[in-house]
Design goal:
- It is a single chain.
- The protein starts with a strand and ends with a strand.
- It is globular and about 80 Å long.
- It is about 45% helix and about 15% strand.
- Strands 5, 6, 7, 8 and 9 form a five-stranded mixed sheet that branches.
- Strand 1 and strand 2 form a beta hairpin.
- The protein is built from 14 helices and 15 strands.
- It has three domains: about 240 residues, 3-Layer(aba) Sandwich (Rossmann fold); about 140 residues, Isoleucyl-tRNA Synthetase, Domain 1 (Orthogonal Bundle), CATH 1.10.730; about 50 residues.
- By secondary structure, the protein is of the alpha/beta class.
């Protein structure tokens, strides 16, 4: 079965045909680094991680670019309010972002271009837009895109802007669908910008948010590339404006497939600090979530549907991920003396077919868990044939290459591993009181250790 993705541009599922047969060029909108990214942001970042993993599973080489927005209205406002340089502010939050993606086992992008390091490319693109007749300089030396010159403006959003196109201008980076008006490409310096400015043919100033992604994506991926992703909140104005300025500057189609993930709901509503349901990844790890449990909760719903997250789902997610880990370890024990050959069970075809259909993760997970249940039952009643074991191992490993829910020793905190070594020494010395005390310390750190005849079994605690 061919891969099909729902293309926001055409409003239908389409067969995926990359520009280069064995390669996919992928651009994903990264964080605006004026604050810590929250779980809603990571719902989108994890969808994009799953997309990339799936494409790699299908044999594609994926060239992935994710931008870092380190200059815009929000970063300048925050640096002013915190009385810190914009560089120091954004570097702090970039470091926290990379820590969070490592925690969640997100495969890093090949390139993380920063807006501030690509001002030259942005100025060049604005110059081409002026030359092509799609942009103009205002009296204050800002430069705006003239949307009534681009007949296809609004094609991503699928709204008819004809009656709404005005001569007013939008100088803000973000705005609502009620304002489909000329948008800013280059902002002239004003006093509130302080030391944040670059020299340009129109005087000192800084780029608008939308031009940043157009300039960086085309620099690394070319004027026409395969897939552009983001959250649904990026569709307008950001992605609509990206299309307009990129196609008018480069005189060709910008992106072939646009994929957008839906909003994350928290406790059934919108996440907000005032409601007390605003979660950072570090907050949730402190609550006792494992990276695998968070990955499961944020990937179990289809990317184009709302997912409702709640801290109360922690126990369920930990149980599910532990079940997968226990099953895999059981298979590894069974496979010790098996012939090191083996294909895949028939159920794998149904699993992959579900993902081929616009990344239908609920269906793929249902196929996997039903197979796991049946295979476990066969192991329980000793009816598994040796020839079935390695294909089962292969299925779990293929599954994990996409969802990454298996726990590795490298995922266990160093302090827990040190306590385990200390406890093993106490057990060798038959100092049972000390061993029990260390077991309690391990429990307090969120892990349960069970002694086995040939060693021990460690798993995240469900009761932290």
């Amino acid at each position: 079965m061919s891969i099909k993705f729902y293309n926001t541009l055409t409003k239908r599922k389409e067969e995926f045909l990359p520009i280069i047969k064995s390669e996919v060029k992928l651009y994903t909108c990264g964080p605006t680094v004026y604050d810590t990214a929250h779980i809603g942001n990571f719902r989108t970042f994890l969808f994009e991680d799953l997309l990339k993993r799936f494409l790699r599973l299908k044999g594609y080489k994926v060239i992935h670019v994710m931008n870092l927005t380190d200059v815009d209205d929000k970063t300048i406002l925050r640096s002013n309010s915190d009385n810190i340089s914009i560089h120091d502010l954004t570097e702090k939050y970039i470091e926290l972002f990379f820590k969070d993606i490592q925690t969640l086992k997100i495969i890093p992008a090949d390139h993380y271009p920063k807006a501030t390091e690509h001002i030259t490319e942005m100025i060049e693109m604005v110059e081409r837009l002026i030359k092509n007749g799609y942009a103009y300089k205002s009296n204050d030396n800002s430069v705006y895109f003239k949307i009534d010159k681009f007949d296809e403006y609004g094609k991503l959003t699928n709204l008819n802007f004809t009656e709404h196109k005005k001569t007013q201008r939008i100088a803000f980076d973000d705005y609502s669908k009620d304002n489909p008006q000329d948008f800013v490409l280059w902002k002239a310096w004003k006093m509130d910008d302080g030391e944040v400015f670059w020299n340009s043919p129109w005087g000192k100033g800084r780029p608008g948010w939308h031009i940043e992604c157009s300039a960086m994506s085309t620099k690394y991926l070319g004027n026409n590339f395969d897939i552009h992703c983001g959250g649904v909140d990026n569709i307008f104005p950001h992605h609509e404006n990206e299309i307009a300025q990129s196609e008018c500057a480069n005189n060709q189609k910008f992106v072939n497939y646009w994929l957008h993930s839906e909003h994350l709901l928290v406790d059934g509503g919108k996440m907000s600090k005032s409601a007390g349901n605003f979660y950072k990844i570090s907050d949730l790890i402190d609550e006792g979530f494992t990276p695998e449990a968070l990955r499961y909760l944020l990937l179990s719903g289809h990317y184009r549907t709302n997912i409702n997250f709640s801290v109360g789902k922690k126990h369920e997610a930990l149980k599910v991920t532990q079940r997968i880990n226990d099953f895999y370890n059981r298979l590894l024990e069974l496979s010790v003396n098996c012939d090191k050959t083996g294909g895949l069970p028939d159920e794998y075809n149904s699993f992959e077919k579900a993902l081929d259909d616009d990344l239908n993760t609920p269906k793929a997970l249902a196929v996997f868990f039903e197979w796991l249940r049946k295979f476990n039952a066969k192991v329980d009643d000793n009816s598994v044939e040796e020839k079935e074991i390695l294909p089962a191992v292969n299925f779990v490993e293929k599954f994990n290459s996409v969802f990454d829910l298996l726990l590795k020793k490298s995922d266990i905190p160093p302090e827990v591993m040190n306590l385990i070594k200390e406890r093993e020494e106490a057990r060798k010395d038959k100092d049972w009181a000390k061993a029990d005390s260390i077991r309690d310390q391990i429990q307090k750190l969120g892990w349960t250790i069970e002694d086995k005849p040939n060693g021990y079994k460690l798993k995240p605690s469900l009761e932290k």
